[in-house]
Amino acid sequence: MLRSCAARLNSLRGLRGLRGGTAGSSFPLKNIVHENHSLPKPCWSKDMRLLFDQMMKKCEDGSWICFPSHKYGSTKMNQGFSAIIHDYFSTASKVINKENMSQAQLFCGSFEDGLGFEYAMFYNDAEERVVCLFEGGPYLQGAPGFLHGGAIATIIDHTIGMSAMWAGGVVMTANLNINFKRPIPLCSVVVINSQLDKIEGRKIFTSCNIKSIDEKTLFTEATGMMDERSRRKIMNNLNP
User: How far apart (Å, rounded) are the C-alpha atoms in residues 99 and 135?
Assistant: First the structure.
């Protein structure tokens, strides 16, 4: 089922291209795919598994797509981002160590299973919406028994970043505003709903909220503005 969803994702993006860009400049997922870690894991709670199965059911008619989840960025992806950093942040690019880059892991996937960020993301093209099922592990504790605010900010940034990436290609966070309404219990399952609000030139505006699985408790609200960074440049580096 996951393979069929991933295939539809590649097919759909190839047909429609990136919003705001030229047709055919779609983000080449086939070039950056490594082992998919979004499969149900033994460490997932019953609630997490149940929600995942429900979302996968929605994928069957093509209305929703499950994003692959990876621990590592590919060599081509790293090269593309390095090109952007060199163009826009020449001072920072001088301190990038190629050996360190080869050992780098994506932050949200750098913990052992069950200890950190456990999540699965789904996208609805018609609604321009990303849903993230998230379960924060014991290594993400802030106040005793609750998730650290920085961990919450991380998964929010990751989720709205996926919304913006679909709309504009490769993006970087320019602004992130978060209102913490209630603390999120450690190791609980929550649902993050993110949507694309508007695009103004290279600026992509998104918003999201985090709610309990029964949608009765609002934990967090956030808005973000992403800056599209040289789609043509990184596409040249990503494509063979």
Answer: 32
